[in-house]
Amino acid sequence: DASTDGTPGVLRRYAGKIRVLRHAVNRGQGEALRTAVRAARGEIIAALDADDVWLPRKLASVAMAFERARDVNVVCHQMRLGDDRLNPISIAGGAPNDIPGDRCVRFGRESILLRSRGKEIKGILFCCGGGSWAVRKEAVVGKLDTCEPPRAYVDMFFTFLAASSGGRGLRLKEKLGVYRRHQGSHDFFEAGDIERHMRSWRRCGDCVERIFQAAPSPLDPVWAADLEAIRAHAAAIILLLEAHRLDPGRHRPHRREIS
Fold it and tell me: For the whole model, what pTM was predicted?
């Protein structure tokens, strides 16, 4: 995607082993993935963010999961949290996306949103961070010709796009990657960095709007409810952040305030 760092030099070391596709100008992660998906020759599309690392057995485990049933269109797995050097880190309250075992969802019949007791969204079942997702090419390639992918939150976009084709999704309990959190990440923000926090949630809202545009119409009621919940959740957090920015002493944005 018109990288200006040392990426081209690294890729030249693998000449003859991989195909390198380049955009002349930066068009965003969504367009870069669309270019790759269109050019892909295989059946399974698995993306790896620049910030993340796949652990051994990642691709083999995902491929085996797809082989379990031909109607599985999405496979995701859990990720470990790590810093910029891959050292383990923890977050307050633990990892909200942890599940006790492999879980299968039949799309269109049940929600894929995780909610706390207060009903606020804690996570999305199939988008558990970074390069954890893989989809069947046939489930997304046709839809990509008639939509514009977002520049961020592309994991959520591709997952919902594949899910709108029906079938099932499988999430693996095994942690097959490391999701790095550091200051260079687009969704990382220091305490009090309201502007960066707001930009992240605006990108999330933009992603939801593009899913609405790309999904088949009429949208399945379960999917429509999920997307509306995410859109409302993002809008509420943005409003709280706006209020906090205008009057820091009175408003303190916190997950529990979102209902």
Answer: 0.81
